[in-house]
Specification:
two-stranded antiparallel ribbon; globular
C-alpha cells in the first residue's frame, strides 16, 4: 500500500500547470507562493527584498505580446499587398499568422513541461547540445539587437517628422539610445507591461489615423495631382521571385518577435494563462494587420508609402508620428530589454545575485543594458543601407528563431511517445505538421534572405547607401 502511494505521487502532474512535478514541487507553483519554498527553476530563490521576476498578470502578458509584435512593421503590409496582390497577400498573411500562432503556443507548452527553460538558447541546448545553444543564442541576440537599432532609428524618423528636421538626425538617434538604455533598464517585465500598454494604444491609434485619412482624402499624397484619381490596386499581381520572397519576409517580420515570448512566459504569475493571452493577442494583431493592409492599399494602390505613415501627406504624417512616438519608444525599450535580460540571466544564473539587489546584480544588469543599447546605437548610426540590412537580419534570423525550433520542440517532446492522447492518427498528423513547419520555415528563411540581398544590391546601386552618422532628414521617404 505504501509503495502504491509513493508511486502515484511520483506519477502525479501539477493540476494547474501540467508539468511533470506534483504541485508541491512544481517550479511555477513554488515561485508563485503555492508551495513550501520560493525557488524558481530559472531565477532561483525569489524574495520580497529582490526583484519579483514572476509577477506578470494576464493583461500585462497580452500587452507585452502585442507590443513586442506590433510596431511600424504593420505599415509595410500595404506595400506587401501591392507586391503580391490583395488576395494572395491576405492568404499569405493568414497562413503565416496560423503557423506563427502554433509556434507561439508551442513555447508555452514546452515551458510548462520544462520549467528550467528560460530562452531559445536553452531549447537549443536540450535539442542539439552546446552547439545548438550557441547558434540559437547568437541568432536571438543578433535579431533583437538589430531590431533595437531599428527602434532607435524609428524614433529619429519620428522626431524628424514632428520637428520638420529641427536638428541633425544623429542627435535624434542619440535620443533614441538614451530612451533604449533608460527604459530598457527597468528590471522586470511586470513593471515594463504598464509602459507596453501605453505604447500599444499609441501605435494602434496612429496607424488607424493614417488608415482613416487615406480613406477620406481625394487621393494619396504621392499620386499625380492632376486628372481624375482612381486607385490602381490589384487583386492579383505577378511579382518576380526576389520581390515575392522579400514581401513574404516582411509578413514573417511582422510576427518575428516570437522568440521573445520565452521571456514573457518565464515571468508570468500564472503560466497556465499563457495560451489564453496568446489567443487574444494573435487574433487582435492579425485583425489589425488585415484591416490596415486592405484599407490603405485599396485607397492608395501603388502609391502607398512604406511605412505607410507618409501616404496621407505631411500634415497627417506629422500628427501620426507624434501619436506613434510612445509606441516606438516602448518597442525600442522591449527590444533592448529582451537581449539584455538573456545575457543577464545567463551570466548570473545559479547565483544569489540573480534575484537579489546586490552590487553585482546591478552592475551586471546595467552593464548588459548599456552594452546592448550602445551596440544598437552604433548599428543604427554607422551602417550604410540600414533598411536593407534590417530586412536581411529579419529574413535570416526572425524566421530561423520563429519556425524551425518550434517544430523541433514538438518532435522532442512527442516523437518517442508514439501517440498523442491515445490517437495514433492525431500523432501522425502532428508529426507531419511539425515537419511542415520546419520545412516551410527553412524555405522562407532561404528565399527571404535571397530577396533581401537582391534588395540591398539594388538599393546600393541606386543611392550608394546612407552615410554614417548622417545629419540628413531620414523622414522624407516615409
Amino acid at each position: 500500500m505504501d509503495v502504491e502511494t509513493n508511486s502515484s505521487k511520483l506519477g502525479d502532474k501539477c493540476p494547474k500547470h501540467g508539468s511533470d512535478e506534483s504541485s508541491s514541487e512544481c517550479a511555477f507553483c513554488v515561485a508563485a507562493g503555492g508551495g513550501s519554498t520560493t525557488q524558481d527553476a530559472v531565477f532561483g530563490e525569489i524574495t520580497e527584498g529582490g526583484p519579483n521576476y514572476r509577477d506578470v498578470g494576464f493583461l500585462g502578458t497580452v500587452a507585452l505580446m502585442m507590443k513586442t509584435q506590433v510596431g511600424l512593421g504593420v505599415l509595410s503590409i500595404p506595400s506587401v499587398f501591392d507586391t503580391l496582390g490583395m488576395i494572395p497577400g491576405i492568404i499569405c498573411l493568414i497562413v503565416i499568422a496560423t503557423i506563427n500562432t502554433w509556434s507561439c503556443y508551442s513555447i508555452g507548452a514546452f515551458k510548462l513541461k520544462h520549467p528550467e527553460v528560460y530562452d531559445i538558447s536553452d531549447v537549443g541546448l536540450k535539442l542539439f547540445g552546446p552547439i545548438g545553444r550557441e547558434c540559437f543564442a547568437a541568432a536571438f541576440i543578433l535579431l533583437m539587437v538589430f531590431c533595437s537599432a531599428s527602434g532607435m532609428l524609428s524614433i529619429a524618423i519620428s522626431l524628424n517628422a514632428i520637428s520638420t528636421h529641427a536638428v541633425c538626425t544623429a542627435v535624434f538617434v542619440a535620443v533614441g539610445w538614451v530612451i533604449a538604455f533608460g527604459c530598457g533598464s527597468i528590471q522586470t517585465l511586470s513593471r515594463v507591461s504598464a509602459l507596453a500598454w501605453v505604447g500599444l494604444v499609441s501605435i494602434i491609434v496612429a496607424i488607424f489615423t493614417v488608415t482613416i485619412a487615406v480613406g477620406v482624402q481625394e487621393r494619396p499624397y504621392a499620386a499625380p495631382r492632376e486628372g481624375v484619381w482612381t486607385s490602381d490596386y490589384k487583386l492579383f499581381a505577378s511579382p518576380d521571385f526576389a520581390s515575392a520572397s522579400a514581401a513574404l519576409s516582411s509578413l514573417v517580420f511582422a510576427y518575428g518577435a516570437t522568440p521573445a515570448f520565452f521571456s514573457i512566459v518565464s515571468e508570468m504569475r500564472e503560466p497556465r494563462h499563457y495560451t489564453r493571452a496568446l489567443i487574444v493577442s494573435q487574433i487582435s494583431m492579425t485583425t489589425i494587420y488585415i484591416v490596415i493592409g486592405i484599407v490603405v492599399y485599396y485607397f492608395c494602390g501603388s502609391y502607398v508609402a512604406s511605412p505607410a505613415l507618409g501616404s496621407a501627406g505631411p500634415a497627417v504624417k506629422k500628427a501620426s508620428y507624434a501619436v506613434a512616438l510612445p509606441g516606438l519608444m516602448a518597442s525600442t525599450m522591449l527590444l533592448t530589454h529582451y537581449p539584455s535580460k538573456y545575457i543577464f540571466v545567463r551570466a548570473l544564473r545559479n547565483t544569489r545575485h540573480l534575484a537579489a539587489n546586490t552590487k553585482i546584480h546591478w552592475a551586471t544588469w546595467l552593464g548588459c543594458t548599456f552594452g546592448v543599447s550602445i551596440i544598437g546605437y552604433i548599428i543604427a548610426s554607422a551602417i550604410p543601407v540600414f533598411g536593407g540590412l534590417i530586412s536581411l537580419i529579419g529574413a535570416l534570423f526572425a524566421t530561423f528563431t520563429s519556425f524551425q525550433p518550434m517544430g523541433c520542440m514538438w518532435l522532442y517532446d512527442n516523437w518517442k511517445k508514439g501517440t498523442v492522447r491515445g490517437s495514433r492518427t492525431k500523432w501522425l498528423l502532428m508529426v507531419c505538421w511539425a515537419v511542415f513547419v520546419i520545412v516551410i520555415g527553412t524555405f522562407l528563411m532561404v528565399a527571404g534572405t535571397y530577396g533581401s540581398i537582391v534588395g540591398i544590391m539594388d538599393s546600393y546601386k541606386a543611392s550608394g547607401g546612407s552615410a554614417a552618422w548622417s545629419c540628413a532628414d531620414n523622414s522624407n521617404s516615409v
